[in-house]
Amino acid sequence: MINIKEDERLNKLNHSCAHLMAQAVKHLYPEAKFWVGPVVEEGFYYDIDLGDKVITDEDLESISKEMKKLAKDGKRIVRQEISKSEALEKFKDDPYKVDLIERMDEDNTVISCYTQGDFTDLCRGPHVDTVKECKNFKLLKFSGAYWKGDKNNKMLQRIYGVCFDTPEELEAHLQELEEAKQRDHRKIGKDLGIYMMSDLVGRGLPMYLPNGFTLWNELENYIRNKEIKRGYKHVQTPPLGNVNLYKTSGHLEHYKDAMFPIMQVEDEEYVLRPMNCPHHMVIYGNDIHSYRDLPLRIAEIARDCRYEASGALKGIERVRTFCQNDSHIFCTPEQIEAEFKGVVDLILECYKELDIKNFRFELSLRDPEDKVKYHQDDEMWNKAEDMLRQVLNDLKIDYVEKIGEAAFYGPKLDVQVKPAVGNEITLSTCQLDFCLPAKFELSYVDKDGEKKTPVVLHRAVFGSIDRFIAYYLEETKGALPIFLAPVQLNILPVNNEYHLDYSREVYQKLLDENFRVELDSREEKVGYRMRESVIKKIPYTIILGQKEVDDKTISYRCYGSEETTTVTQEEFIKLIHSEIDNKVRK
What we know:
alpha+beta, 586 residues, 28 strands, eight-stranded mixed beta sheet, 37% helix
């Protein structure tokens, strides 16, 4: 989906359409006063004070009609530059505009306003030439919004819209919005019983329901088994730590704004951990290590907590507590290339099995001019960045370099995934770190008997499991591959009086095969229960009637198909095992 804010032409067009909407609102509600009307990724919005009036769907329709009439009239949009005193006089009856103007620097700010017919608005611009260019628009929704985002201020009315140059582009965009709505993991998560939120528990704190926890466990087992086969050693560490741990690591200095406040516990100070690397550094330092012990791959599915503003929270994609599929690989400098290659191989193996295709690699580097964000050690940074760049080149991996996107302690490889809808997200990461091992005074004894400092690769294949679930629900529209589906098989007896006993027999046999199976024997018509099975996106629905009872067979339908297939019990069991083992995604 196009990012309207980043498209120069669409940005200008939507900015102008926001003014057109404000003009229409002013015509219909003369007492209306206006705060801000910015362009955002999805289009534009305007925050409006309508007194005690609350916008309804009917009002949105009336505003649209007035906008169309004004666009048809085709008034020119004219820019005027004015002084601060002139601006205060012009907008003296609108306290929201006065607030904006009073905070402007009189000496260094060019104050401009734009006029179209009988309407003038304060704005930096730029705008299109005439309102006629804004005729292909759609008002999308409305909501309440506190002035300046402060809940102690007045609630304003926020109206969202979008505008394109042609009706065809608008219609295509609206179809994409509808597709995005159907794919939104928040909707799918509710429909499939994956997770829930509760203000009583707290914002950004998801609770996984039985179906969601099953999916979570399958993903956790999937990645843990792959790590075990590659020599990873799994640990478990607490989700908080002494504040001195984060002073030593540098996180308290560089990451404090993303951490929850420090807690005083008797004579100690603790903090909820934002990441796991400090704990893993301490685990490594618990033993004496020889070069023969390396690489040491420590892994953990670990609970972390980060302070996120409430406005940034989004389902399980952006939360305040989440689990990372985390690992820290301690190795010698000579082992970096092989270990880094092993991480990339693991990422690509998982992506292939999960059918993740639309992704690219970014090499995130520091900004040498930023003396605050990054650990100050030019020699370390140059060495780490050159080494990572060389490894990527040796592996013949296509990548782009991103200045200023590194972690504070070292450069990293980010795998950017393009979801079916929406903007790119970072799914997998691998970071090279010479900094933290030195901070924690970690060492190993080399072949000459000398103490050396190990290098660390920070690695997460799924990143946050929460975010991965959100991404994968949207990618699959909730139709998960059978090996991940919370319910894999659903049995429907056609008539309980005649077919329930056999259905129970089949149910137990499939349970014994460790399949996740349900028996729906409610006193509802089989067609109704079939539709519910489809809505739940269960991979296989089994229909058992008299023929199946007589022949001891199984008739089934795959999700997305209306074709019914009949096989023996043994054939069906073999089919399901094969699809689970081969990670089949239909």
